[in-house]
Amino acid sequence: MSFVENIVSTVNGELPEFQSLDEGIDFCMDHLAKHSKGLDEDFFLDTRWLEVRDDVNFQENVLHIFQEDGSYLHILDGDISKGSWENSVGGLIVKHGDKHELFECVFLNDDFFILKKHGSGALRGQRKYFYMVREGFGRGYEWNELIEMMFRVYRSNSFYYLMLMFVLITVIVLLAFSFM
């Protein structure tokens, strides 16, 4: 692909149609990972994170809230169960019910929170990603629409850098011609 085609596809490009949420996240992470914030930043705390799946049988409304004091709330259709969480051993440890699970942060920003369970669960038929969106942002959208919205983060950041590069090159050219 030529440089110009690459610029055009970055700014105006369409996403391919994905067969699964995992496939869409895999594609986006090739572009978005560098724009992710880390778990050491606490802005994700006390936020109502809505769980998203690509399973048509998943009709429940599941919220996940990580509280600053280490409490974890799992809210299934308004029914609350408690657990705990901690940022440790390079990931997020979530203790809920009789499960203690280690998740690694794949992507995190103000609207998207994507975790991946440590290990090879996807090889055993489990979901590869634990995909959450800020409830106020993502309510009412299907998983494929949310993937498109997430990819816009990349497009908007790429467009910004392209414009910055264009302005910088223009200034350099103008300075070069002004000294001639």
List keywords for this structure.
180 residues, alpha+beta, Lipocalin, eight-stranded antiparallel barrel, elongated, disordered N terminus
Number of strands: 8
Strand content: 25-35%
CATH topology: Lipocalin
Specify the overall morphology: elongated
- Overall domain count: 1
**Helix content range:** 25-40%
Structural class by helix and strand composition: alpha+beta
Main sheet properties: 8 strands, antiparallel, barrel
Describe this structure in words.
It contains four helices and eight strands. The chain is α+β, with helices and mostly antiparallel strands and 180 residues long. The chain has one domain: Lipocalin, CATH 2.40.128. Strands 1-2-3-4-5-6-7-8 form an eight-stranded antiparallel beta barrel. β4 (79-88) and β5 form a beta hairpin. α2 runs parallel beside α4 (143-178). The longest helix has 36 residues, at 143-178. Residues 1-11 have low confidence and may be disordered.
